[in-house]
Amino acid sequence: MRPYLELCRIYLVPTALADSFAGFALAAVVLQKGEAPLPALLVAVMSVCLYSAGMVSNDLFDLEKDRTGAPQKPLPRGAVPPAHAAWLAAGLAGFALGLGFLCGDAFWPAGLVILFALLYNIGAKNIPVIGDVLMGWCRSGNFLVGATVAGGSDVSFLQIISTVELLAPALILGVFISVVTAVSRLEDNPYKPRTFAALVHPLLLVPVIMIAMNPGSWLNWIANLVLAGFLFRAILLAAENQENLHPATTYVRKALGSLVLFDAALLLAFTPHEKTSLLPAAALCMLALFSWWWKRKWLQSGGADT
Length: 306
Hints:
By secondary structure, the protein is mainly α. Helix content is about 75%, strand content about 0%. The protein is built from 15 helices and no strands. Helix 9 runs antiparallel to helix 14.
């Protein structure tokens, strides 16, 4: 099973879970819905399937390039037959869409995530800006999957995206991922400090903006100040590790490592002032700890960080 888990990027799955759970928890409080266990479980399964389907299809379309550039991956080294990977990607995507039908309008954001992922994997990732935005939209769509499921059968997907308190955090998440994806493009070229700084430094404003969204919540202050610290640390580590790794590589790994915390900060920033999201935010923080431990164990066992 290990090559298949590697193909699905199993060590990064908690970040996808965090995106959809943040959307689910925020929609539950904004729309005054109950956080029922079964819908939350369905959101988690859909999120895992969507993310894994995107990762598997990405390696399928990159197979020829990876034969020379990354021969250690499961497909080019022959650990997983391409036909098996194709069936796996199709099965995961189909299962996610099926669950979306069961959850009402969640079919639509799930379908958009699959569409954006396919466009990115087919070749849009090689187009600057367009590829970056598509990757950001995948994360935004995953957030909206959770929000739509929380809305239940009496709230349509159109109503979800018409609600500013739900659409705005999805877009902020998408912008963050789009910029991080743009930074990852720098890995293939010699290090240019000005270009790197122009991309990463504006992201330090995101926690400031989110604090301003809910200044009366001390939880929001704590979460976003911690997030700002992680993003600043990513910049410092990128500058320190130039001899071992490209600064863009170091930054992307550290920035994505803070993604679960980013979702918790989003949740707290957009929770209405008279409400609280303490328990869901605490759950996301616990997921962040698990995510870091999970990835560390994966790397210690010989897994690739790619």
